[in-house]
Amino acid sequence: MERTLDSLDEDLLNDRALTRDEALVLYAAAADPDAAEPLFGAAARLRDRGFGKGVHYMATMAPILACAIKPRCEYCDWWRARVIQRGRLAAGAAALSARGVRRVLLVGGSRDGDYDDGVVDAVERIRADGLDLDIEINVGGSLGAAGLDRLRALGVVGVTASLETVNAAIFARHKPGDSLAARRRLLADAQQRGFELRSIMMIGLGEADADRIDHLLELRTHAGLRHLMISRFSPRADTPLAEREVAALHDWARTVAIARLLLPRVRIGLAGGVDLAALPLWHRAGGGNQLFAMGVHTAEPPPELRDLAQPLGDRLYLVDRRPLLEAFLNGAGLRPSFADAQDCR
Ligand code: SF4
Fold first, then answer.
1. pLDDT tens by residue, 41-85
2. What is the per-residue pLDDT across 284-343, written as a single tens digit (0 to 9) for each?
């Protein structure tokens, strides 16, 4: 298997796509942590050859809209977060820009139907002060075709449609108020309009290995996919899944690695349930090369982040995580930058 993996690097970069059967075999073989190094090594070599040592820093702002999905997704408590006041969006973006940020992801909630007017308004408020920021949007599946056209006209560069899981039964069970079909439609509509696509895949909702591989293969059909974030189910208090076991960290890491082999040119990043202690494992498993270095949020920063937080007034906070990220990145010889110098498309 190791010899096969060694010879795969060149093939994959030359667009000899890994097959479903190959992916399933490699993924299963890496289920034992002691046997995962060949897969991790191949994924990391592929990442290095595609992206080099540069790491692209960007930022998030959230939530920009209330989540109106009901019933709530069973793993989520984020819908409780206080929404950023409309009148504070520009100040939050300006604070990020002042620290060097050039790209920001504006994050939902979602609702059944479209959130076109709310998202367009948020972008217009940020653009009103002439800020030169690349903007991406993530409001679940809640953007219509007309909204996408308006966002394109406003210069928005990217749209997220996170499928979470492509196992329809699991999606319906744990996201009973949400629509997998709407999220798939958004991926297709956004690609058709030339947006960069970002998606999110959650590990640990009960999906099988084959579901995960099929998920990645479905994403591979979207040529515009540029960013994939892999999250790890972690139980949240006061949610229906509070008693469910956290997804194994190794399971998350081997998914990062197989995603790299299936999607060699896609940036594969951290997502919910994955803390910064997992950065070395993410890198070893072929993750890269983009990280959220900062965020503007309404939640009061926890004690361990208080020294990194800048209060922006009206209970809005900017948290700059660069010191935490660079404790690892510098030692690994990686070079973070706000400039997206390594465009691997
Ligand atoms: S759509 Fe679901 S996961 Fe997203 S904020 Fe709403 S309840 Fe949470």
1. 999 999 999 999 999 999 999 999 999 999 999 999 999 999 999
2. 999 999 999 999 999 999 999 999 999 999 899 999 999 999 999 999 999 999 998 755
Kindly state if the Cβ of 67 falls inside 6 Å of ligand 1.
yes
Contact status, residue 309 vs residue 319, Cβ threshold 8 Å: yes
42 alpha carbon to ligand 1 midpoint, in Å?
35
| Cβ–ligand 1 contact at 62 (below 6 Å) | no
Paired sense of beta strands 134-138 and 103-107, if any: parallel
Q: Which two tokens stand for residue 333?
A: 């010889």
Q: What is the pLDDT of residues 214-254, one digit of tens each?
A: 999 999 999 999 999 999 999 999 999 999 999 999 999 99
- Rounded Cα distance between 11 and 325, Å, is 32
Domains present along the chain, CATH in parentheses: 54-247+266-333 (3.20.20.70)
